[in-house]
Every structure is written in C-alpha cells, then in structure tokens.
C-alpha cells in the first residue's frame, strides 16, 4: 500500500481541479451487502459472524473461514470480477507490471512471465492456457464500481487504506510460493475453486512481505477448498499458499487487504515528534544540550538520561487530550478512495443554497475529512505560526488509488502528490469543531468574533462540498 507526500492546502480556495469520475457499470445481481453505513458493510461482509466475536476471537489472532452454500451470494461475488473482464479492460490500455503480473510458482519460487509494454488480451490468454500462468490484476477497484463502493466504505470503517488484487489461476497450477504478507487479508472466492494451505506464522503480525521455504514452514495448520461465495480471513504474518485443483475450472478470487503500517509502533513514530516539540516549549530539560561528542561515541549515562526524559513524556501524555499526528492522518486522506456517489459520481460540485449568516448547515462526508494543526506552510520564516488545515479526499482520483506516484498527472514538479483542502487561522478551530461535532449548527452561532469570519468560513467549506444548507 503506497503512501505519498503532499503539498499543503491553501486558504479558502480549491487546490485541485475535479477529475472525471468513472462511469457506473451495468447493474449486477442483488447485493448481499448493506451499504447503510461502514459498520453495516463490514457486518454483511463477514456475515453470519458478529463483529464483536470477530474482533475478540479472530482479528490479528487466527484465520476465519466462512463457507456459504448460497447461490445468490456466489452470483454476486462472481459479478465483482471475472476473467472475461480482462478482455475489455485490456482494450483500455493495461500495462504489464503496473496493472498486470503473469507469474507461476516453479520449484518453490515465483517466476514472472511478464511481457513489455501494453497488455494484449490474446497473448495474456495464451500464457494463461499454455503456460498455466496466474494472472494477477492490481487494484481492480480502479475499474469495477462495486469494489470501489465496498472498499471506500471499508476505508471509512477501518480508518486505514484498503487495497485489492485479483488472482486468476488455471486448473492444476499455483501462482505464488508460500509466503506471508504485511496486511490483514480478506479473500473472496469469485469463480471456480481454490485449495488453501495455511501455516503457523514465523513472524507474528509481520511488518513486511516475505517468502518462506517449504522445509521451514512445517505442516499446514489449516487446509480447505474455497468455493464461490466463500470468504477467508487471516492476519498479517500468516504463511499461506494456494493452488487450483486439477481437472476443473480456473479459479478467480479477490484479496482485499488493509492495515499496512498501521500499528501502535507506526503511530508512535508519527505522534511522538509532535509531543516532544510541544513539551519542549515548557520543559527546560528537553531544551538542555546533549553531552559533547554524544553523536560521535557512546557516553555513559546517556541511556539513563534518555529513559528519564521518556518517562517525563509519558507523564505529559497522560494529560494530553489530543495527539498531533504529523503524517499518518494526512497520508490516509490523501491516498484513500473518494466517496462512491452512484449515479452522481460524475458531478461532485457545490450545490443547493449558498450559506448565509442565518443559514442552518451540516457537515457532509465527515469520514472523508480531517482537521489538523500545523506550522504555516505558506510562511518560510523561522518563526512560523500555527494554522488549521482541513484536508479531504472528495477529489481524490479513483484511478490512482494505491498506485503510487507513477505517471500521476496530479503530482507537482517535485513529484509530490497534491492534497485537497483548506487553510484557516488557528482562531477558527473552535468553529470548525462545532461544525464537525454537532448534527447541525446555525452560521451566526459559530465561535468566531465577526460575522464576516463566519460567512467566509462556511463559504470556503461549501465550495469544497464539505457542508450543505438545510
């Protein structure tokens, strides 16, 4: 799951030109998914397992297999992606490496069979049929609306990026060697059948991908065959391999993955710098110089001194109401999917009445926006005052989701992806919290000194489609 840097948002004006939304596809079979809320989407994904049971007994602990003998669920899963979809998608300009990998497991190793340049479907199908190669299609939510809809809601549910890959494997073949991933994995079986073997982790909750040799992993702890409509979950670090049984049809499954680099360790790395910066303003011990030559050689007592400072920071943390995240929140908003708007997907633009002083307003797309406090990015002076930034993902490009910066038209000359949002003086924070934390609020009741400030604030938010007049 890639993360990008970002340019800062500017006060009261748009940062990014809206992109054209992908067209909604033809209707699919009745959906077993309940899209009322992010919670209901996840609940229907793991049905009949209750959410509380799932997180208490399975999440980050052990695999969960849900086998469903339900033709309607199987038909819906099949509609999410099929082998034949690649024929049409190839005509739109897919590339080897970026969009598609062709691979096969040979003697316990992954053999990549990619060609150069654009994908030709007939050649792709020949490699699939004759070389028994697995087709790995990256991030199908860029093209398939129903996967966009599911993954966007799951990103709201988890508060973490949610990616996906499709694997199509011919009968009697295996695409990847035994390995473990650095993500939580949900596998939906779409077409055909696939045999899975899971093994005890060698690295619990692994932070990186790794291939394991057959002689090291021992015997499987779980072995079963997935059929259309079935779902399999396993935690990051779970060693696994899968093959399509011989003599039958090919297998298609989609792997939905999340929680890459989203641990307490990652959050500490992100939040501690801000905590140290704020505490140093008041604690002279943190402003005291380190010993001479500490950066050159180890000096006795330095670790004891550092431990003492960390304990002081822990005490400070106990009384801190809000932690300042320097990168994780912003990276999530910058890189996540835009809202799925159904038939309105082509036209996300300000609408309805202009907000005025006596207007009652409410927040839109709360799950897609964050408020942060950062040094003023518009001022390069040594003493930069703090500003409030409102970042949102309403204009993120669906076709770039989880694809990094390669060939991205939305990057700056320095190769940094732009953020979308607004910049306000620190005095606007209380008014913004009013809008975020209440169901509705009247503009004239916002916690700002002047009517002009109140109107300018809500007009800026309205122009970014973040509020509406009711």
Write the layout of secondary structure elements.
Layout: H1 38-45, H2 51-57, E1 64-66, H3 71-80, H4 85-91, E2 100-106, E3 109-112, H5 121-130, E4 134-138, H6 145-158, E5 162-169, E6 179-180, E7 184-191, E8 194-199, E9 210-211, H7 214-217, E10 222-226, E11 231-234, E12 239-243, E13 251-258, H8 264-280, H9 284-287, H10 302-318, H11 328-335, E14 360-363, E15 369-375, E16 386-392, E17 420-425, H12 429-437, E18 441-442, H13 451-463, E19 467-469
Helix pairs in contact: 1-6
Note down, in words, how this protein is organized.
The protein has helices at 38-45, 51-57, 71-80, 85-91, 121-130, 145-158, 214-217, 264-280, 284-287, 302-318, 328-335, 429-437, 451-463; strands at residues 64-66, 100-106, 109-112, 134-138, 162-169, 179-180, 184-191, 194-199, 210-211, 222-226, 231-234, 239-243, 251-258, 360-363, 369-375, 386-392, 420-425, 441-442, 467-469. With 470 residues, the protein is an alpha+beta fold. An 8-stranded antiparallel beta sheet has the order 1-11-7-13-5-4-2-3.
**Measured distance between first and last alpha carbons:** 38 Å
Proportion in β-strands: 15-25%
Q: Note poorly predicted spans.
A: 2-24, 412-416
Q: Please count the helical segments.
A: 13
Report the C-alpha radius of gyration, rounded.
25 Å
Residues in helices, as a percent range: 25-40%
Output the strand order for the largest sheet: 1-11-7-13-5-4-2-3
- Secondary structure class reads alpha+beta
Q: What would the principal axes of the Cα set say about the shape?
A: globular
Q: Give the biggest beta sheet.
A: 8 strands, antiparallel
Give the averaged pLDDT, no decimals.
Answer: 90
Number of extended strands: 19
């Amino acid at each position: 799951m890639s993360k990008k840097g970002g340019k800062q948002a500017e006060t009261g004006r748009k940062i990014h030109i809206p992109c054209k939304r992908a067209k909604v596809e033809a209707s699919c079979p009745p959906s077993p998914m309940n899209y009322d809320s992010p919670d209901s989407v996840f609940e229907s994904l793991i049905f009949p397992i209750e959410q509380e049971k799932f997180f208490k007994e399975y999440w980050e602990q052990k695999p969960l297999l849900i086998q469903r003998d339900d033709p309607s669920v199987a038909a819906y899963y099949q509609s999410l992606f099929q082998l034949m979809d690649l024929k049409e998608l190839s005509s739109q300009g897919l590339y080897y490496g970026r969009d598609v990998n062709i691979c096969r497991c040979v003697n316990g190793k992954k053999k990549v069979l990619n060609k150069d340049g654009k994908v030709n479907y007939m050649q792709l199908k020949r490699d699939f049929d004759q070389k028994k190669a697995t087709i790995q299609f990256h991030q199908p939510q860029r093209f398939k609306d129903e996967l966009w809809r599911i993954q966007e809601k799951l990103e709201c549910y988890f508060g973490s990026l949610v990616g996906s890959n499709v694997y199509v494997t011919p009968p009697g073949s295996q695409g990847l060697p035994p390995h473990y991933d650095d993500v939580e994995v949900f596998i939906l079986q779409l077409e055909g059948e696939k045999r899975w073997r899971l093994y005890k982790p060698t690295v619990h909750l692994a932070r990186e991908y790794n291939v394991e040799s057959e002689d090291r992993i021992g015997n499987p702890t779980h072995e079963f065959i997935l059929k259309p409509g079935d779902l399999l979950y396993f935690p990051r670090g779970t060693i696994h391999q899968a093959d399509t049984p011989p003599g039958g049809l090919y297998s298609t499954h989609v792997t939905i993955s999340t929680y890459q680099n989203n641990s307490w360790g990652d959050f500490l790395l992100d939040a501690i710098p801000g905590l140290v910066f704020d505490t140093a303003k008041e604690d002279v011990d943190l402003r005291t110089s380190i010993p001479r030559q500490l950066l050159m050689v180890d000096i006795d007592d330095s670790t004891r001194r550092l431990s003492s400072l960390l304990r002081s920071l822990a005490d400070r943390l106990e009384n801190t109401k809000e932690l300042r995240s320097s990168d994780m929140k912003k990276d999530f908003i910058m890189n996540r999917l835009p809202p799925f708007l159904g038939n309105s997907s082509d036209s996300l633009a300000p609408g309805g009445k202009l907000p005025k002083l006596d207007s009652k307003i409410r927040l839109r797309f709360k799950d897609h926006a964050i408020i942060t406090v950062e040094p003023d990015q518009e001022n390069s002076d040594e003493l930069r005052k703090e500003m409030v930034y409102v970042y949102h993902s309403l204009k993120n490009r669906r076709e770039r989701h989880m694809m990094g910066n390669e060939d991205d038209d939305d990057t700056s000359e320095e190769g940094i992806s732009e953020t979308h949002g607004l910049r306000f003086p620190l005095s606007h924070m209380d008014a913004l919290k009013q809008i975020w934390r209440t169901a509705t609020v009247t503009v004239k009741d916002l916690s700002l000194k002047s009517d002009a400030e109140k109107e300018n604030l809500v007009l800026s938010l309205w122009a970014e489609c973040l509020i509406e007049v009711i």
